[in-house]
Design goal:
single chain, Rossmann fold, alpha+beta, 645 residues, hydrolase, eight-stranded mixed beta sheet, aminopeptidase, Methylamine Dehydrogenase, Chain H, aminopeptidase activity
């Protein structure tokens, strides 16, 4: 190994620190962000850091010795930061001095937003437990009554002088999820749910405007599912509120930007208007700009673009496109500077800053050793589906190899969602494509229909049709790589987590072309998923039906991998978190029992204490090592000039 090159190990991938939640100060001079020591336990330790927005001085830790939870937020004067630690709100000076706890609320602080004027902070906090609640807890009387008893997160105002927390009672028992103040220091836009439990089809989401001084409440009506990122903007002196939500009328189709004006006194609110209808890109984030029109991030194929809202035509106009990944965008009050997380094909994710039109300059360096790894060569792919639809994806070749060195054993790694995508960035997660490429495999990262980055119609194409055209989209890409001499047709593997796990389970029931498969937290029965998964009826939009529609036959049975278990001959590795509520463990157990019934070679691994994503350090290392070992066992050692890198 050449001097200065670092060997990629499972420990390096898992232990590399991750930057999160960058927030630029209102004056545009500073960027605060969180550095998390990834994978060290169920609750990784996160520290608050600050960097000069112009890169003129090195980043420094802002609240040494105090962990930071969630998103930090700046005071209006940019002189201090508010953040949560141990469930309570803290404040620290820009220079790192005067770090102090501001609350001791026994209900815990869920989120916070400093308000104009500097005296108040809007917080979300559940009621403190009563004496009766504490007696029940002491007696282990912890029966859960669904829809009753769960404490809603209430909107409260913290007065920084008196430390008093005052509830804004006008919202009643609605569960508050997000808040943003009008840039001129006026009222708050609030997104709320009818109950704290996330149960699509049961709870409803609504948009409100509330005056923090008087408590006067204006209801702006019901929103679509998953409403988030409310922001204010104005045109011709009329204030409006925009937000992201799932595109109606169906349950599949991704996010859109919706917008509504504040009505005249006594008038009813207007209909919420979709500002992104017809666009061939997908909004991912909305950003409020104090002295200008809003910014937004859009997934654009393999790249990410910053758009600005044109207030006259109420449409988004492209400002800047950056290769690969950009997310967690924030803007200064003037809108002249933005900060975000960004990554490209060979650069790990870090905090970047610059004007909205670019360029964005890197401020942090949280994973310096990753910059010294020899990565597999990453190529952008563009091809057509069998029906002519334009598709894209990525190919990662083994380290120091070119297409001419093929064919290689090929592992197809399918993304989750399905409303997600692969971007042209460095794939170094605990479920890493580069981990396989640096072991000598070629890795295909397809973006089939149903995903993000090509507009609403592309995303909605899988409604009731999972496993159909999206599956042939993937096969078409594999066939092209075989025809080009890149992929060895006798050494094909398929791998995926969540919806990608579903696709891997689906694949082995449709064909015997794959010599090995990995099903990570995958759906294997859509009827059971709609009944027991945390996203409930949203899943029925993918599977096409639910079990309570009658005795069947049901459409979802024809979309469920377990229905085709008798046809599986491919060896399968099943990985699942024991406490997964998104895709419950029963999905993996069902598939395991079906494979046992038909004598299919497989392993079934359950990770204790883990949810839908694997978090604990030892478990992440196990996933990485077990993945390589599984494909090495069934695909054979990749051809190389020596040992895998």
């Amino acid at each position: 190994m050449s001097e200065g090159v670092v060997e990629l190990t499972a420990e390096l991938l898992v232990d590399s620190a991750e930057p999160r939640c960058p927030v630029i100060s209102p004056d545009g001079a500073w960027v605060a962000y969180v550095v998390a020591s990834a994978g060290r336990g169920p609750d990784p330790v996160s520290a608050l850091w600050v960097a000069a927005a112009d890169g003129g001085s090195p980043p420094r830790e802002a609240a040494r010795g105090t962990a930071c939870e969630g998103v930090p937020r700046w005071a209006p004067d940019s002189a201090s930061l508010f953040f949560r630690s141990d469930g309570q709100l803290h404040r620290v000076g820009l220079d790192g001095s005067r770090c102090e706890a501001l609350t001791a609320w026994r209900g815990g602080i869920v989120d916070h937003w400093p308000l104009a004027g500097g005296e108040l902070v809007a917080v979300i906090a559940a009621d403190e437990p009563s004496e009766q609640d504490e007696r029940r807890q002491a007696a282990r009387d912890d029966a859960i009554v669904w829809g009753a008893g769960a404490a809603p997160g209430r909107l409260r105002l913290l007065h920084l002088g008196t430390r008093e927390l005052r509830v804004l009672a006008e919202l009643g028992d609605r569960h508050v999820v997000e808040v943003v103040q009008r840039p001129d220091g006026g009222p708050l836009a609030v997104v709320s749910w009818s109950c704290p439990q996330f149960d699509p089809g049961v709870f409803t989401a609504e948009l409100h405007v509330i005056d923090p001084a008087t408590g006067a409440l204006l209801d702006l009506g019901r929103t679509g599912l998953l409403a988030n990122s409310p922001i204010w903007w104005s045109v011709r002196d009329v204030w409006r509120v925009a937000y992201l939500a799932v595109t109606p009328p169906g349950l599949v189709g991704g996010l859109a930007v919706f917008d509504v004006a504040l009505p005249e006194p006594g008038a009813a609110p207007e209909e919420h208007r979709n500002l992104t209808a017809g666009m061939d890109v997908c909004p991912t984030e909305l950003v409020q700009v104090g002295n200008g029109t809003p910014l937004a991030l859009f997934a654009d194929g393999l790249d990410t673009a910053i758009y600005r809202l044109d207030p006259e035509v109420r449409r988004f106009v492209r400002v800047f496109t950056r290769d690969g990944r950009v997310d967690a965008l924030t803007a200064s009050s003037s809108g002249e500077a933005v900060a975000a997380l960004a990554s490209t094909a060979y650069e790990p994710g870090d905090v970047h800053c610059g004007p909205p039109g670019g360029p964005l300059v890197r401020l942090s360096d949280t994973g310096p050793d990753l910059r010294r790894v020899r990565w597999g060569t990453q190529e952008r792919l563009s091809y057509k589906a069998g029906d002519g639809l334009d598709l894209d994806g990525l190919l990662i070749l083994p380290v120091d190899r070119s297409r001419q060195d093929g064919p290689f054993p090929l592992i197809t790694l399918v993304h989750g969602g399905p409303y997600d995508r692969y971007r042209d960035d460095l794939n170094t997660t605990w479920f890493s494509a580069q981990w396989l490429a640096t072991a000598g495999y070629a890795v295909f990262l397809p973006n089939p229909r149903g995903g993000q980055g090509h507009g609403h119609a592309f995303a909605a194409a899988v409604a009731g049709r999972v496993g159909l055209e999206e599956w042939t989209d993937i096969l078409t890409g594999i066939d092209l790589l075989v025809a080009d001499g890149v992929a060895d047709p006798d050494r094909l593997g398929i791998d995926g987590w969540s919806h990608g796990g579903f696709m891997a389970a689906w694949a082995v029931g449709q064909t015997d072309r794959f010599k090995a498969a990995l099903v990570g937290a995958g759906v294997t029965d859509w009827g059971m998923q709609a009944a027991t998964g945390e996203e409930g009826v949203l899943e029925s939009g993918l599977g096409g039906s639910v079990g309570w529609e009658g005795p069947g036959p049901h459409l979802h049975d024809r979309r469920s991998p377990v229905s085709f278990a008798s046809k599986v001959t491919t060896p399968v590795l099943i990985l699942h978190g024991q406490d997964d509520t998104n895709v419950p463990l029963g999905q993996a157990t069902y598939f395991h029992r079906a494979l046992c019934r038909f004598g299919v070679a497989h392993e079934f691994v359950v990770y204790p204490r883990e949810g839908h994503l694997i978090m604990e350090r030892t478990h992440r290392i196990d996933v990485l090592r077990r993945t390589r070992a599984w494909f090495g066992r069934w695909l054979g050692a990749p051809a190389s000039d020596g040992d895998p890198i």
